[in-house]
Pentacotripeptide-repeat region of PRORP domain-containing protein
Amino acid sequence: MSLSKSRSKLGHVLVMWLLYFLENQHKCWHRALAFQSPSVCKLHPRSVPSIYFSPTDRIRGRALCTSLLAAGKTSDQTPRQDVSKRNRPTNGAERRKLNSDIFRLRKKQSSIHLAEQRLDEAITDMIKENEKDSGLNIPSLMQKRHEQTRKQKEEMKIEDKGLEQFPDIVSFHAVIGSHAKNAHKDRLAPRRAIGLLEKMKELSDTFPHLSPTIFTYNAVMEAYSNQITKNKYRRGSQNRSSEDEEIILRLYRELQEAGLSPNAYTKNMILSSIPNDSKEWCKLERWAFDYLDNNGKSIGADRNTYNTLFKVYSVVGNVKKAGEMLRKLLQWHQQQHLGKDTQTALKPSKIWFHCVLKALAVSKRDCDDHDDQIQRLLKEMKDLVNTGHADLQPDTTTFNHVLNVYATYGNLGPAINLMNKMEKASEQWERPDCVSYTTVIKTLASVQKKMLMTKTQGSVEIAEKATEIFESMRAKSILPNVLTYNTLINIWVNVGTRDALIKAEDLFSQIRYPDSVTYSTLIHGWSKTRLPEAGSKAQNLFKDVLRLPPSRQRRNFSITKLCNSVISAYAKSGNEDAPECVDSLLAQLEGKYLSGEKTARPDKITFLGIFDTYAKAGVSDAEERCDVLLERMSQYRDMLQLEDLEPDRVVYNAVLNGLAKSQQPDVIRKVEDILAMMESSTDERLRPDIVTYATVVDCYTKCGEMSLQRTDELLRFVERTFRSGDETLKPNAVFYSAILQAWAKTATVEGAEKAVNLLQRNVVLFTQGNDYAKPHSIVYNAVMDAIARSNMAGAGARAEELLTEMESLYQSGDDGMRPSRRSFNAVILAYRNEGNASKKAEEMLYRMEEIADSGRNEIRPDVVSYNNAIAAVVEDSDSENTADRAQALLDQMEVYGIKPDGRTYSPVIEAWLRRNDEKGHALADVMLTQFLDKVKESKKGNVRTKKESLYEDAVWNVINAYREGSDNDFYAQLASRGWISGG
C-alpha cells in the first residue's frame, strides 16, 4: 500500500473516530447515519449538522476536523500536499492559527482565561486596524469571507493580507463553549459566557460577521443550564438557580426578537432549565405534543425532547401527562412502522416506561388504581417485546420502579409478592439487587409511618420484619449500601424506645462510610424521646457529623436543623445541665455562621428551642436567661439584617412559658410587663393570642396565687373578646385547661365545682354548634385533677365517672377523647386523697396494666401511678397489712422495669417504720439502703435528672419524722454509717 493511500486511510479512520466519539457522548447511534457518506474525506468542519450537537461538542468536532483537513486532504481523488509545502501559509492560515491557539488553550479549565485573553488581543488588533486609514473596508471583507464557503475562500483571487489575524465567530464560539462546558465547576463561567455574547452584539454594529447566531445563544444558555443542574445538588443554591432560570428565559426571548429561529437543541435546553409552570415551557410542551399529533410531518421534536419531558413529569409526579405522552409516542411509532418508515429516532424506550412509574411514585396521591396502572404498563412492555422490541423486556430496574410505587403507597403485600417472584426468576437480569431489598424495606417504613399517624400498634413488628429482610439480603451475598442502612435505622428510630435506639446505633456502627442522612436520622430519633441520655447522645453525633467530608454531606444538609434537633433532645431529657448545653450549642452555631458556614445560621426555631429548654428545665433564673437570649436575637437582626429573627408573638409566648415554669414569684412583674407591651402594640405580629393568655394563666398558677376571681375575669375577657369578632382569641382546649388547672390548684371544693360546671357548660355549647367548646381529653383531665385535689366527698367516684365518660366517647369514634396515663393517674390521686379508698386505687392501677397489655401501651402505669397507689395504701386509715401491700407494689414496679424514686421509697419506708418492731426496722433499713444505692449509681453516671436530685429529700424527711420515740438501735446504725447527717 502506498504512503499516500496509508495516510488517506488514517485520515478516514480519525474522522470516523471523531464522529463515533461525538455520537457516543449523546448516546444517539441513529445520528451516525448522517455522516456515513462515501466521501467522508471531503467532510468540512462546518458541514457537521448543528441541530444534532450542542455548541460545545460541535466546536470541538470542527476544531479536530479543521486540524485534520489543515494537515492535508485525505481524499483518494485529491493528492495529499507535499511535505515540503505543509507549513506554507495559505489564505486563512493565520486565522486558523488564532483559532487553534484558542482551542488549545481552552482544553484545560486553568487555561481558559488565556484563551479569552488571546481573543481580546485579536479583537483589539482588529479594531485598531479598522480605525486606520488603510483603504481596506475590513468589516465588509470579513463579512464577505464569513458568507463564503470553504471552496470559494480557497479559489478567491483577492489578497487577504492583513485579515488573517482577525477573529471570526468560531473564535468566540470556542471560548463561550469552554465556559459552557466548565459551568459545573466554575460558578463565574456563565457570567463570562454572557459577557462574550454582549461583546459580540456590541462589535456586530461595526463587524457584521460577529453577529450572534443561534449557536452563540445555545452555548451561553448551555452554560446557565449546566449551572442550574449543578445547583440542584448543592446546598443553599436555590435562589441562584432561580436567577439563572430568569436569564435563560431572557436569552430565549431575546434570540427570537433578533429574528433567530430556535432549533431542537435550544428548545430541549429550555424544557430542562426553566420552571414547568412558565408560559414558555407550556408552549414548548404543546409543540412537542403537536409534533406527535401531526405524525412527524413537520420538523420539530426529537428523542431528547421527549426524554426531557418524561424526566420533568417524573420529578413533579405528573402521571396524567406522562401516560398521555407515552400513548402518543407508541401510536406514532406504530403508524410509522405500518407506513414502512425507516425512522428510528422515536423508537420506544424502556426509560419512558420507567419515567411513568417514577411519576406514579412521586405523585403520592391516594388512588386505588395504581396497581392497575402498573399492570397495564408491564403488559404494554411485554406486548411490545412480542412484536420485536426485545430491549423492552422488564428487568430488575423495571421491577425496582414498581417496588418504589408500592413503597410510596405502603402496599406491603404486593411488594413482598413481587420480591418473591424476583427471587425465583431464572434469569440474572430479573433477580433482586440491593435496590430491590432497600425498596422493600422502604415499603415497611411507609407502613410504619401510617401506623404512627393513626396510633396503631405494630411498629416493633415492622422493625423486626425489616431486619429479617435485611439479614436475608446479606445471606444472599448482596451487600447493603448506605441507603439500605439509613432506611432500616429510620424504622428502628421511629419505634422510639431505648432498646430500639440501641439497635439503630448497632446498625450505625456497621456502616463503613455513614453520610449526613445517617447522622441526621439518629439525631432526630434521640430528639423525639424523653430519655435522660438523649441530649448527650445527640450532641456526640452532632460533633461527628460536623467532621464529615463534603462528599458525604447529602443535599439539604443543614447544620442549623441538626443543631435544633440536639437542642430539642436536651429540652426533653430533663438534664440539670441542659440549659448550659444549649447555650453552648448556640455559641458554637454562631461561631460557624460568622466564619462563613451559611447553613449554620441560627433561626427562630433555634431560639424557640432554647426557650423551651429553659421552660422544661424549670431554671430559677429564667428571667435573666430570657432577657439575654432576646438581646442576642436583636443583635443578630440588626447586625446581619436577619428579619426572621424579629421577636414576635410566638417568641414572647415562649418567653412567658419559660417564666411560668420557673415557679419564681418575682417573675409575675415581668409577665405583666410583657403582656402589657403586647396588648398595647400596633404590630399585629405582637398582639397577644389565645396561647398568650393561656400561658399567662399558667404563670399565675405556678408562680403566684391565682385567685378564683382573677381566673373568672380572664375567662370572661377572652370569651367576650372572641364573641366580638377577634378570632385570635378563640378559646381552645389548652386555654380552658389552663383555667381549670388554676381552679384545681386552689384545692378547694369551690374550685372543683367551678371546673365541673365549666365542663358541663362547654358540652352544651358544643351541642349548640360552638366548635371552640368541643370537649377534649386535656379538659377532662384538668377537671378530674381539680376534683382529686379538692378533698370533696366521693372525689374518687366522680373522677372515675368522668374517666368512664371519656372512654365511652373515645370508643364511639372521638379520637380527641382518648384517655391517657394522666387521666388514670388523676383518678388514683382522687382515691388516694379520700383517705380510705386504697383498694380502689389499686384496682385502677391493675386496670391500667390490663389496658396496656391489650395493646394501648401508652396507658401502662409509670412511677407517678405507683407512687400515688402506694401512698393511697400507706395513708389509708382502714388499711390492713399496709407495709406488706406497699412493699408488694414496689416489688411489682421492679418487675415491670419502672424505676422508683424518692417519692416511691418514702411511703414504703414510712409503712415499715410505723410497725416500730424489729422486722419493720430491718426492712426499712433494706429499703433505705436500696434507695441510697440507686441514688449513688445515678450520681455516678453522666446524666443526672432534676427529679432524681429533688426527691431524695422525701426519704430523709420520713426518716427524721420517725426518729423520736423509735428504736434507738436502728437510728444508731444509721448514724454509724453517716446516713443520719445526710437527712
